[in-house]
């Protein structure tokens, strides 16, 4: 048995599944921060209930996403020791910063936010959710720094058989990062928008009594969906121009023909859905157009499918290089039997599948139950009743 295709399949599976948690986390925390900002500025009490309801869903997804990230990190030590040995001094730097700074700060601020409901001044509590949001995007930045380095190893040189970093600032100016980071941010906002819109639409289909609650939620979701869709499509095509600078033959690779076409198709479908939602928002038909409700419920998975296709295009097109032009994928794999890699692949996949099912069940339970009652005490922790 050849260990290389098994190892590549393992990394593709675990990375793709983890990225789905990340996308929804980034998107939801942004919308929750917007909701809480509007309430803090003197908005209606409905906005506080929205903050708590969508905040619960965000925290569930965040918690399970952490577990998938920890599992994914084991792969570097188990399977890709060649990468650590050759490029660890450079590749490991943004990953270490992401873990030690962005992730721990984000978790700390989030804990304070969760248990600060009703116990902190409004403005201090609002500051916490924005700090959570900013550190979440900082985490995404450093992850994309590391991935962009694999795509285009700028600011480094080979010395004594290993890569050395010439200047950390060069990583921020990497052409591979310039369009991909805004693309990921747009994808996150789009995912959060489609999720909020889809869940709100489901409640309208069920003839909910919380008409005002889900009307406001759907409006925010539709606006976020439109902003995210425009950014995704625009920055997606912008990446094609950037590719000419560092990977001119990437889009000619036989492996990316199919996923690239499907990704572009899904991008335009999501843009059309967002435009339709915006049109109905302007005409004040969001709560009446049942065909839109069915459409938006069915459209919830689209950003996730598009995200997986996008990662396939980005990663398959880099082959046979793990670090472009510096380290081949075949040379980076650990010297362990293929059977052991196959065993870890099966174990990781089963674990990820269990976590994905748990995430779906918990989020579906909270989403179906709906928001708190008007008389629910504000000091209840955001995780109550999960």
Please characterize this protein's 3D structure.
The chain has 386 residues and is mainly α. It has one domain. It contains 13 helices and four strands. The strands form two sheets. It has a two-stranded antiparallel sheet. Strands 3-4 form a two-stranded antiparallel ribbon. Strand 3 and strand 4 form a beta hairpin. Helix 1 (3-40) packs across helix 7, helix 1 packs across helix 11 (302-316) and helix 3 runs antiparallel to helix 4. The longest helix has 38 residues, at 3-40. The radius of gyration is 22 Å and the shape is globular.
Characteristics of this structure?
386 residues; mainly alpha; 13 helices; two-stranded antiparallel sheet; disordered C terminus; globular
What is the secondary structure topology, with strand pairs?
Layout: H1 3-40, H2 45-78, H3 81-114, H4 122-151, E1 156-159, E2 162-165, H5 169-172, H6 175-178, H7 180-205, H8 211-246, H9 257-282, H10 290-298, H11 302-316, E3 321-323, E4 327-328, H12 329-332, H13 338-369
Antiparallel strand pairs: 1-2, 3-4
Helix pairs in contact: 1-2, 1-4, 1-7, 1-11, 1-13, 2-8, 2-13, 3-4, 4-7, 7-8, 7-10, 7-11, 8-9, 9-11
Rg computed from alpha carbons, rounded to a whole number of angstroms = 22 Å
- Tell me the β content: under 5%
Shape summary = globular
**In the residues, how many domains can be counted?**
1
Q: What is the number of beta strands? A: 4
Mean pLDDT metric: 88
- Count of helical stretches: 13
Short précis:
Helices cover 76% and strands 3% of the residues. It has helices spanning 3-40, 45-78, 81-114, 122-151, 169-172, 175-178, 180-205, 211-246, 257-282, 290-298, 302-316, 329-332, 338-369, and strands at residues 156-159, 162-165, 321-323, 327-328.
């Amino acid at each position: 048995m050849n260990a290389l295709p098994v190892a590549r399949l393992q990394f593709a599976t675990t990375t793709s599944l983890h990225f789905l948690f990340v996308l929804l986390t980034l998107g939801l925390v942004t919308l929750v921060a917007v909701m809480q900002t509007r309430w803090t500025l003197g908005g209606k009490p409905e906005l506080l209930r929205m903050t708590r309801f969508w905040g619960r869903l965000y925290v569930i997804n965040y918690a399970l996403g952490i577990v998938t990230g920890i599992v994914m990190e084991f792969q570097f030590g188990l399977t890709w020791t060649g990468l650590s040995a050759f490029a660890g001094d450079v590749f490991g730097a943004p990953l270490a910063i992401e873990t030690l700074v962005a992730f721990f700060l984000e978790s700390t601020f989030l804990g304070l936010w969760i248990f600060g409901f009703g116990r902190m001044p409004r403005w201090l509590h609002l500051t916490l959710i924005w700090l959570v949001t900013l550190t979440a995007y900082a985490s995404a930045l450093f992850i994309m720094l590391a991935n962009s380095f694999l795509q285009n190893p700028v600011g480094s040189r080979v010395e004594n058989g290993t890569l050395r970093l010439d200047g950390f600032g060069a990583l921020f100016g990497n052409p591979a990062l310039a369009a991909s980071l805004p693309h990921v941010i747009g994808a996150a906002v789009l995912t959060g928008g489609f999720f909020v819109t889809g869940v709100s639409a489901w409640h309208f289909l069920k003839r909910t009594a919380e008409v005002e609650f889900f009307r406001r939620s759907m409006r925010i979701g539709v606006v976020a969906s439109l902003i995210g869709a425009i950014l995704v499509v625009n920055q997606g095509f912008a990446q094609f121009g950037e590719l000419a600078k560092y990977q001119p033959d990437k889009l000619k690779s036989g492996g990316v023909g199919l996923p690239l076409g499907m990704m572009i198709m899904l991008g335009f479908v999501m843009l059309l859905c967002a435009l339709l939602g915006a049109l109905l928002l302007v005409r004040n038909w969001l709560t009446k157009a049942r065909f839109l409700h069915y459409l938006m419920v069915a459209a919830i998975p689209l950003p996730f499918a598009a995200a997986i296709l996008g990662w396939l295009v980005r990663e398959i097109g880099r082959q046979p290089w793990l670090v472009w032009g510096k380290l081949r994928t075949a040379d980076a794999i650990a010297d362990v039997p293929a059977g052991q890699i196959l065993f870890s692949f099966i174990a990781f996949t089963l674990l990820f599948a269990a976590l994905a099912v748990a995430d779906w069940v918990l989020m579906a339970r909270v989403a179906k139950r709906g928001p708190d009652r008007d008389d629910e005490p504000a000091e209840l922790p955001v995780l109550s009743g999960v």
